[in-house]
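Team,

Forwarding the record for the chain on the shared tracking sheet. I've put the sequence and predicted structure together so nobody has to dig through attachments.
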Amino acid sequence: MSASGNSSFHPLSFILLGIPGLENSHFWMAFLFCAMYVVAVVGNITILHIIRTDPTLHEPMYLFLAMLAVTDLVLSSSTQPKMLAILWFHAHEIEYHACLIQVFFIHAFSSVESGVLMAMALDRYVAICFPLRHSSILTPSVVGKLGAVVMMRGLLWVSPFCFMVSRMPFCPSQIIPQSYCEHMAVLKLVCADTRVNRAYGLFVAFSVVGFDIVVISMSYAMILRTVLGLPAGEARLKAFGTCASHVCVILAFYIPALFTFLTHRFGHRVPRVVHVMFANLYLLVPPMLNPIIYGVRTKQIRDRVIQGCCGKDP
């Protein structure tokens, strides 16, 4: 054990178990996770390349999509390389500060992803409810400021997690029954009163995710009211089509995220293997699905991908 401060002690490292209960399947499961990670990296880099090289895509919807792609790359890359090392090479040990850095990146960029999804919902609301004013309301400057606010919120809200944990004493146990360092999992190894930490975690969750979900819900409620008021059925279908991909992305992110969050705090009867699997999928499935969903549902991106694959000029 090494000292940190006057009365706070932390281990030199932690032991990540991977997926407890499925140790015999770790080697083969790693191939599935590796394939999903490769799809996430290639898909999101492709989205970024298409948006960067096509001036016609420098619009709010695609700029937010680029932010989402960057966030997905950070989220998946903050956990998957270490997870694959655990599953394939039994590299279970993670250095103490590396663990806290992982906690920071996971929670900060989960917050950023939630904020980007909220911004994308606002973009769809303005595009459908105020189509003639869309370009004047969501200017590149406004989009940039929204992105900066979302990023700063994630960084500032989550930074205290690591600071508070780093100043607390840890128990002799150094085992984390997951494949990555998560705030609540690390907090369970602390030998001190963690009520303040838990309360702050709940505050961050409800002030970030709760606020974003409320804004998203209100945006889509107003979108639905506007769409149902359209006279032509074809116009309704087109409007619904523009929102369908975003709704799928929202569900893919929030459902496993909320399940993981609630299970950590209230789901004591949920089998650990189920909890750990959802915790892994929560950080891997959305980054993998987002470029696929937008690549299939968005004509401009789909056409550019087809043109690139066929070797044709746009």
